[in-house]
């Protein structure tokens, strides 16, 4: 177990280095000049030259990279050119928002997706199954931004039940916080629910036709107990893996949904930073989310090892 | 039992607090973008100025008719040679941290704008040589040369006064918690989410401040911004889309106010910046004249903007005091345009690389221009380009025509000098004409409007009338603001910034 962990941790180093080079390199490919954008409408040459010097944009790219890496290794992700705030502060400010949204979305996805998947497998080829399948097809094919705008018109403009956009911290007002995040969380969760439903249904159908389930039924167990205790547990393993991966994606920020509901999370931060060519912010946020993703992956691997003894040898 | 009682007391207390909180009036303003840093020296965005309008007062302001009126100043006087401007300051003004506003503070603020690393105000105050304290309530600006647009500069961020104590302590982090002398003081900011300000009890004009708290919420998507206004989540939004004007007018509880912008929208032609300028459009004023005669500005306004905007052909709108009536908007004349092209020796369709920043409105304008000039013999190859990229390409001369506007400045100089003077920073076309240059420079030194207007007439005739220039001005937008009926006292300003003094919430 320990050597495995050590090996995996060692692998992290070149992976992260590679990621950092790619982030930095790709960014340089963005057309446009950050100093020109920063200089505002007036574009005074003196101001532009000064910005270039201040943010080392006048240095060769490898030199810029080394400066950035030096900062990162000492815990300094740099400073936003646009708002003059440390990138680390911005990341820490957005992390709880994105985490809350991702958590709620995945919860919604699991409840709807797994629930609908089980029902449609158990009641295969009935109208319940068809209904769940239609729901899944709709969920996969509905664009987030469209569903978002429709929800805003229904629940905010017409009914006036929920705020159209914005974000309230749970520590400020829990109810208002839930009200401000339920729509974006549903939009995100809905798409994932559809995928989860399809996977749950497939896995359940396979398990339900396996020998041990037939044995359980032959023993005279209640159908409910057969489905929920015996079949579901086994069927859920691949579903949970998928859910974990989706959670990782959600944590890197939901660009469109955050933009529409004006939720100040990672997605919005990164889009604004790209359009403003705020390099330090883009680099910092992508590095942090990439690290989070890799770490989640590592944790998932460790969890498999713990769960499945066959993998340990 | 005891526990029960304390719960009851706590509940009663909470209720009374909630009651007090409800009595507070709270204005929620939806912004089209997230402002940049809130430091008057380092700020550069338009939306940032909307927020500054509530927290940082300036030496001067403008009124609805673009007249310059005193704000933290009381009066001003220019010397006969125009090289000295003496400004008397308003007494009894305090900064948000309780520090007094006086000549020393004004000198500090101006010098901070002029010398701070990264200050965007440096070029705006570039003509100021020195700031002197005359007496505790008077300052004197010594200029390198007479510069009539100076006062107009002081109606914007360059005229904003900051608390010297707070600015010295915070250094370049001042923007995280700005301390100025405006009607509202800064409370908190959550990046990309909100900026909260509250009424400043010691404001010099506090009798006219009626709202307790203002929250600015950046909401980029204009549909969502409008939805928030309709659902009651916001009280005022800036820059709704021109295409949403009808929806707003049809909603009974909403009001739409507008003012013609001080800027312009136009088409810049690359005259001599790099090899791409090697085209008859750049070389011949006749070809440019033909291009202009192919345009129908009224139709453009009707088709794309429902006739809500104002067609124009100069760097200020036809309503502006500096508009030159002697250079009117030419009517569309296809026959004459064709004849001019023939005269210039252009046979067959003339292909032009037309760079258009990516946004739905400009794309539509570009397509309409494309179809109008196609009738005459121009083949506009529209190249939709992301905004930041288009700026860079314009600098590099990688375009033949570029659809780009300017947000406008209070003084007409700010709309033309940087674009048309030889080698000026925004002159990405390489236009350089000694006659224009001389008139533009002369206009900067004259203080009386008639003389200045005459100088600008020379420029307008040359650049626009004779088509020697590089910009074909097209139209002026209306600065749109929509608000709910609850809000009273809103006055549309030509710069589009929301003045919060005098506003009330029902």
Automatic annotation (TrEMBL), chain A:
Recorded superkingdom: Bacteria
Cell compartment(s), UniProt: Cell membrane
Keyword Ribosomal protein: no
Membrane topology value: Multi-pass membrane protein
Keywords associated with the record: Cell membrane, Membrane, Transmembrane, Transmembrane helix, Transport
InterPro entries according to UniProt: BPD_transp_1_N, MetI-like, MetI-like_sf
Gene Ontology terms, MF aspect: dipeptide transmembrane transporter activity
Gene Ontology CC: plasma membrane
Protein name per Swiss-Prot or TrEMBL: ABC transporter permease
Automatic annotation (TrEMBL), chain B:
Keywords of this entry: Signal
Entry's Gene Ontology cellular component terms: ATP-binding cassette (ABC) transporter complex; outer membrane-bounded periplasmic space
InterPro entries: Peptide/Ni-bd (IPR030678), SBP_5 (IPR039424), SBP_5_dom (IPR000914)
Keyword Signal among record annotations: yes
Residue stretches making up the Solute-binding protein family domain: 67-423
Major site of localization recorded for this protein: periplasm
Protein family according to the UniProt entry: Belongs to the bacterial solute-binding protein 5 family.
Protein name, entry field: ABC transporter substrate-binding protein
Native source organism of the sequence: Vineibacter terrae
